[in-house]
Amino acid sequence: MLTKANLLLARNLTKSMVRFHGHGGIPGENIPFSLENRYRITAVFTAFTVLGFGSPFLIVRHQLLKK
């Protein structure tokens, strides 16, 4: 059971982690790709979305067409 002291300790720990390990609140600084080229972002997003959504359907189709 969490007591008030434990909750306070957890809150202080998360505050210090955000305060000292944060990236300053600059949009796009903590993501693993660049936001500078909007056309590249659109192409990469589309490719990952199509592959991620379409893969199960292609796998099922392949399995059904196997002899």
UniProtKB/TrEMBL annotation:
Pfam families, from UniProt? COX7C (PF02935)
What does the record say about its membrane topology? Answer: Single-pass membrane protein
Q: Where in the cell is it found?
A: Mitochondrion inner membrane
Q: Which InterPro entries match?
A: COX7C/Cox8, COX7C/Cox8_sf
Tell me the Gene Ontology biological-process terms attached to this UniProt entry.
Answer: mitochondrial electron transport, cytochrome c to oxygen
Top-level taxon in the UniProt lineage? Eukaryota
Where are the membrane-spanning stretches?
A: 39-60
Keywords assigned by UniProt, alphabetized: Membrane, Mitochondrion, Mitochondrion inner membrane, Transit peptide, Transmembrane, Transmembrane helix
Q: Which Gene3D superfamilies does its entry note?
A: Cytochrome c oxidase subunit VIIc
Q: Which pathway?
A: Energy metabolism; oxidative phosphorylation
Task: Provide a GO CC annotation, any one.
Answer: mitochondrial inner membrane
* Coiled-coil annotated residue ranges, if any: none
Q: PANTHER family this protein is in?
A: CYTOCHROME C OXIDASE SUBUNIT 7C, MITOCHONDRIAL, CYTOCHROME C OXIDASE SUBUNIT VIIC
The family annotation for this protein states: Belongs to the cytochrome c oxidase VIIc family.
- Protein known as: Cytochrome c oxidase subunit 7C, mitochondrial
Q: Which organism is it from?
A: Glossina brevipalpis
